[in-house]
Prior knowledge:
This protein is an alpha/beta fold and 466 residues long. 38% of the residues lie in helices and 7% in strands. Strand 3 and strand 4 form a beta hairpin. Helix 5 packs across helix 6. It is elongated and about 100 Å long.
Amino acid sequence: MAGRRRSDRALRDKVRSPGRPPVARQEHRRRFWALVASGLSSEDAAMGCGISQPVGFRWFREGGGMAPSHLSRSSKPPSDRYLSFAEREEIALLRVQGHGVREVARRLGRAASTISRELRRNAATRGGNLDYRATTAQWHAERAARRAKRAKLATNARLRTYVQDRLAGAVTSPGGIAVPGPAVPWKGRRHGRRQSRRWGMAWSPQQIAERLRLDFPGDATMRISHEAIYQALYVQGRGALKRELTACLRTGRALRVPRARSHSRGKAFITPEVLISERPPEVQDRAVPGHWEGDLILGLRSSAIGTLVERTTRFTMLLHLPPMEGHGVAPREKNGPALAGHGAQAVRDAITRTITSLPEQLRRSLTWDQGSEMAEHARLRIDAGLQVYFCDPRSPWQRGTNENTNGLLRQYFPRETDLSTHGEGDLAAVAAALNSRPRKTLNWKTPAEALDAAMASVHNNVATTT
């Protein structure tokens, strides 16, 4: 036929131009998700694999925070029967040098028919010729390898309705009247701390998946895995469930969190040398007094009371943390001081003021959880002469003495009460009551008696050495 274009030999339908084809995009994506899985942020992972930070952030959001199944670390590598991007680059170079199909096949260790088919099917046809460029060929190959199967929730309306009703269906009263709950706009981000949440049935995806087997025992079309529901919520472009339905999940996360990143999450002010693993062995066996455990007990309206418990004698001291001037009157200044009274500076001053009333020999160490109220622990170490250590994340049992004492204190300071109504005299009276209770672990001595004995021992040792 006269005027026929050489590109017609590619034997494929016309496709819309993607603009400039991505360079080794599949390889970049694989490297990007491997770095994310190792615990890096999307920005750092993008820089690590040679792409811009906005592109990395877009990939992270499009994937819902998790790698696609074919790019995850557990997925099998591509089969050797398919040409890699490196091989396509070699083909392009050899063709520019004038080598024929059989010579290219011989150098790559491939069949000549494989190279011939590659040059025809994945050629760049924009100019009307069968030009071969590695980047364009890689884009054509990735496009052809996509799965044509649509998500199950996108094709099965009945199943999609069932899942949506269990996720975001209206909460009803015992009389069957819908209770809408607070109006919460969708912002594309996780709900804020101590803010209203959208009300819904809020079944977890696993509950929905398992309940389908009971509600539709003989209907195989009403089956879906909980992971498919998560992907329909988080992965953009699946066309099944709207992302705002993630607000009905228990976590309320707008994006999934890679496991390595959640394990490595910690406070910036905590360094390896202040972790509990570096604490001296004498602290564990309680043989030497002077090692303390501390924490905050919280109440309504951001009120708090600090607690200090000595590990050997169980002696308790309470920290008065009144709200600062301006608390609750005006919106808090961004990056300003914590006006509730239990910010880092207020807690540091309260501990220093309270614990320096003891002899230096009874101020050896303090173990705290990884709360931001201890961000100024370095200054505390200097002011109070107290070495500070931090527990591992989500490990309250590592300060079991303090946790047990906090449970006793709830008799006087119940949950869901305003702790700011208690003055410094009230706290001193409660501490005295606890310190005068006999303890079985002290052979029925009181913590006050045990501390007096410890202080007498300290004075005797000082007199002996002098």
